[in-house]
Amino acid sequence: MTNMTDGNEKEQAQNKEASAVVNYPKNTPVIAIRDVVMFPYMALPLSVSRTKSVIAIEESLKSDKYILAISQKKFDIDDPLEKDLYSYGVLSKITQSLKMPDGTMKVFLQGIKRAKILKISSSEKPRFLKADLEYPAEIADKSPEMTALMRHVVEAFENYVKIGTKISVDSASMLQQLNNPSMLADTIAASAIVEMETRQGILETLNVKSRIEKIIQILAKETEILGIEQKIHSRVKTQIESSQKEHYLNEQMKAIQQELHQKDDFTKEIEDLEKRIKTAKMPKDIAAVAFKELTRLSKMMPFSPESTVLRTYLDWLIALPWNTETKDILELARVRKMLDEDHFGLKKPKERVLEYLAVCKLTKKLKGPILCFVGPPGVGKTSIAKSIARSMGRKFVRMSLGGVRDEAEIRGHRKTYIASMPGRIIQSIKKAKSKNPVFLFDEIDKMGMDWRGDPAAALLEVLDPEQNREFTDHFLDVPFDISHVMFVATANSLASIPLSLRDRMEIIEFNGYTHDEKIAIAKKYLIPRQLKEHGLKENSIEIDDKAIDEIIKGYAREAGVRSLEREIATLSRRSAKKIVENGIKKIIVNSDNLTDFLGIPKYAHEKISPNGIGVSTGLAWTEQGGEILTIETIAYPGKGEVVLTGRLGDVMKESVQTAFSYVKSLEFAPYSYIKSHNFHVHIPEGAVPKDGPSAGITVAVALASLLSKRPVKKDIAMTGEMTLTGKVLPIGGLKEKIIASYRENIMTAIYPKSNMKDIEEIPEEIRKKMSLIPVSTIQEVFDNVLINCQSAAGRNRRLSNKKQEIGI
Fold this sequence. Notes:
Elements: H1 7-19, E1 27-33, E2 43-48, H2 51-62, E3 66-71, E4 88-99, E5 105-123, E6 128-134, H3 144-163, H4 169-174, H5 181-192, H6 196-204, H7 208-259, H8 265-279, H9 284-298, H10 305-319, H11 332-342, H12 347-363, E7 370-374, H13 381-392, E8 396-400, H14 408-411, H15 424-432, E9 438-442, H16 455-462, E10 471-472, E11 479-480, E12 486-491, H17 499-502, E13 506-509, H18 515-533, E14 541-543, H19 545-554, H20 562-582, E15 587-589, H21 594-598, E16 615-622, E17 625-637, E18 642-645, H22 650-665, H23 671-675, E19 677-682, H24 696-708, E20 716-718, E21 721-722, E22 728-729, H25 734-743, E23 748-752, H26 764-769, E24 771-775, H27 778-785, H28 792-805
Parallel strand pairs: 1-3, 7-12, 7-13, 8-9, 9-12, 14-15, 18-19, 20-23, 23-24
Antiparallel strand pairs: 1-6, 2-5, 3-4, 4-5, 5-6, 10-11, 16-17, 17-19, 21-22
């Protein structure tokens, strides 16, 4: 709104301008303004943030400070073009300006004269809008009719001001001192008219008489609307007073109902909640909190937002199984039988459950164990948790932690937030309707963290037997005893689990299945289950052992049996199709027709390269189980450098350097040969990242073979970290690595002597069939692997003896 200054001063300024010949610019920078229309004689403060507008102001300040203020048609356009702007604006002068630290500007514009835009162009550097202008003449006279119109518009404006509260009466009285009809019309329009299009229409009206008439009509309409608003306001006020009266009468009605022993719906709801709290078997301190919140609810209006929150809170408190739990089955033989029915092998987790039940039977009271099953995918970690719950007679609930990044998923939101709820632990226990279910945290190693908190930190209280007796969810804000819950977590790797969380769990490792175990699992569990799911009878399809063997080797090479079950499902579907289409009563699947059902095998039976000069076979551990690792080396003319490829990590690169330095010290080849050649060490499958020190002896064997020109024995694999002095250090994942060697039909494996304690974990059938050689030095490895390879120590002794013989 314009600031109404002294009328005589404005009029004198205008008359002075009219008497003087003012050369207004024909081309000037343009500033597009939003949600307001500028008028001549109007002062307008602006906060300018758009880059083009800031540049236009800066260009104007460099010259005569003139700028065209023009309104844009739509508020939400950030970069308006000529089509987005009105054709009329106001030539203005920048009277004050201030550049802010963030690059925006605060300016004060003083409207001077109407202007019509002939053409708008855009300057390239710097980029801002400029306009070609003309200044149309305003049609005005000093006739008695004009004087009457001026008095009428001032009177209409005074009436508008009296009803409205936005403009002071003193401002309205100043208009009587203005004698210039155009200035009077523009001043009133700037002060009283709000609607954008109406203001722009007034601005574009060049005939002053018509302009004043339009303003009179608008003021009359606005005055009428303001009068109606006042009537509505009075009516609403009366209704509010009536509502208060109604509330008072309602309170009286309640008192009368109490006397007559009658109750309304809200009172019935309060009484129902009270009964449910008494029957919920809550601890005394929790029941006290519930009754306190119920008292607060009874004093509130039934449909207030706060009452809705309290209803939800009380419903959650009442629904939780505070003292409800299932009775454990303590017959160990029965539990063992049920676990064996569901899963093959998995001796460790089964024994741990039986140990827990045995102690429970003796002590009658024991905190729930907190187990963490770690192993490759598809080995039965999740499914055995379900079997544990079934065998113990407990409820089973599962919470997937994969991708969880919000702490509120564990602890919930405080009830002050809109639509807040308890965390998923409390939700799951409510769903189980028991305070001692088997609770599975699936994929605990896949949790993340962000600005919303760290869910792993929230789990510290949950998985701590000393703290979870009083687990407090943010929504409930009262402790709930979860110490009777049997928590089971699953993970593929321990590396991504925080140490503090790992320390609270009992780690049970799940190893990959052997080939014979997979055959047994397929015959006993997978094939019957898939036949049943696909509507096939047991005698309608027959899969012989050789076909199962081919499926495992050629289609489902993995540590677990998930892919194996998928392939059996595929075979079952295609068998069902043949039975339905061709009317075949029985389908026999063997190694000869297996490709008709499953297609070409996905894996070749010989994954490893045949060992020779400069090539050795190692063993590696991955989250999916053990793998075979081939090391290839070649030499070519160069400067004695080592080239490494195969996407190796830093630890593995250092391991290769250590092996190369040690092999060079043994003088398998003249120093001149080593200095004049480069040595390339490559580990195939270059797209797969590889790291760790356990390939040290494998690299040393490949390099020793290359320099000594002695081939490496076939069908022998090895694993072990080596030191710079030739000692072999222990490694991890030995069982998985030996199983991988057995799976690839490599029946001889070399491993560190320090790992002999881990041999007992390897299945007995593999230990009997394989030759497992423990070593403590790299020389022992060379003696077992390199064909006709004499030891460096022996060679040095013979060289010394030869020197003594010839008298050196």
